[in-house]
Amino acid sequence: MKEWILQIMTSLNYVGIGLLMFLENLFPPIPSELIMPLAGFTISQKQMEFFPAIFAGVLGTMLGALPWYYVGKLVGEENIKRLADKYGKWITISRKDIEKADQWFHKHGEKAVFFGRLVPGVRTLISLPAGISNMKLIPFLIYSTIGTTIWVSLLTFAGYKLGEHYELVDEYLAPVSKIVAAILVVALIIWIVRKRTRNQM
């Protein structure tokens, strides 16, 4: 996987970043945790510029998010789950993955699209429940773009700082993503408690 990503990025430059991030959103096994840190390493070697690389990553991600959004909008939740049961193994998406993203969306509302872009395992599929719930396109694009820009920038900067050890980003991100998810859960609980307290007053 790493060699394939490297080959595309070195041969296509910024277009390669955009293409890889587009594919990463369509096929979750392609990891942004390797793509953008590699771009950061390339920047540290003076072969790319920081902001154009981030722009390419964000653009590719947003273009890749739209197909899932419209699949959710046009196909519907139960049909998608049935398709995942039947064909999901080919793109490594299961009914459980869809349900997880759906739970995120219903817990956090439209802001789930923003938060979801920052959590591996959720970020790619969060577009599905947004479409299923008929979230309006403009808010979807705004929340997605903001979350994606933060995510892509952090990964790129980490790769830039780590240099040739950029692969450590992928290695260390798993526990960090769990911490982020835990923080979001705690924040949600606090928000619910405060809301109930205000309603009882």
From TrEMBL:
Predominant cellular place of this UniProt entry's protein: membrane
Ranges where the VTT domain occurs: 30-160
Family: Belongs to the DedA family.
Organism: Floridaenema aerugineum BLCC-F46
Annotated keywords: Cell membrane, Membrane, Transmembrane, Transmembrane helix
Recorded superkingdom: Bacteria
Subcellular location: Cell membrane
Membrane topology (UniProt): Multi-pass membrane protein
Residues spanning the membrane: 12-30, 50-71, 140-160, 172-193
Leader sequence segment: none
UniProt xrefs under Pfam families: VTT_dom
Name of this chain's protein: DedA family protein
